[in-house]
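User: Here's a protein and a ligand (GLP). What would the complex look like?
Assistant: Let me lay out the input and then the predicted complex.
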Amino acid sequence: MEVIIRATLDACTSIAATIVAKHLRERKCPVLGLATGSTPERLYAELIAMFRRGEISFGGCTTFNLDEYVGLDASHPQSYHYDMRTKLFDHVDLEPSRTHLLDGCSTDLRAECRDYEQRISTAGGIHLQILGIGANGHIGFNEPFGSLSSRTWVKILSRRTLEDNARYFQDRNDVPRQVITMGVGTILKAAHCLVMAFGRQKAEAVCQMIEGPVTARCPASALQLHRRTTVILDEPAACLLQHRADFEWIERNKLPWQRYD
Ligand code: GLP
């Protein structure tokens, strides 16, 4: 894994935006995997700003979101459909028919999962997958102890994630217990994974993901098996890493074309 640690959220965001912009500029039909939650919010705001300055375009771009709550329709303010529309889609030149999200209200969720895998495959696979990480090490909504080779599936949220995500809902009993998510195996098929993690509450999960064993106890640790994963951390999220000096050594010795800033 390539690990990049920066002092400020602005510096982290700038590197993440540079990576996304590179994909948008260099590929004719880029396919982006998108995440929701608080972590990518600044990145999306920066991409909107870059689009408005004429520096990037999403024309020709296809997107696939990681996950969705079961039972929330696209107009529900806590649905990831709604989140993506308000935080990115409505503000850039993405063609709506090319933005794919899982339908958590499908009457046949298993068929929805199969169809999503098919749609990703028809698009030619995901070039860049943006990821956050849960405090318990989940990626997408792949909770601990699920299969590390899973494909898009329906999962039951852990109590920890239910508690963590309750802040977005009026009542914690409103948080759906079931979710539909790309599997860990689906994520691992992306050509490049970009993980961002900010804040002390992510430090344990970050440490397990990067320095721990590959284990279903921390689904994000499966990214150690991925051929190209970049992790961008702020100081609090990086504070438990034991091998920070090694990551900094690698960064210092990169060739110019290997650098993002
Ligand atoms: C959520 C989402 C994940 C997200 C993670 C972290 O439950 N399903 O895709 O990356 O948990 O969320 P946040 O960025 O709000 O901390």
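Summary: Residues 7-242 form a domain with the Rossmann fold fold (CATH 3.40.50.1360).
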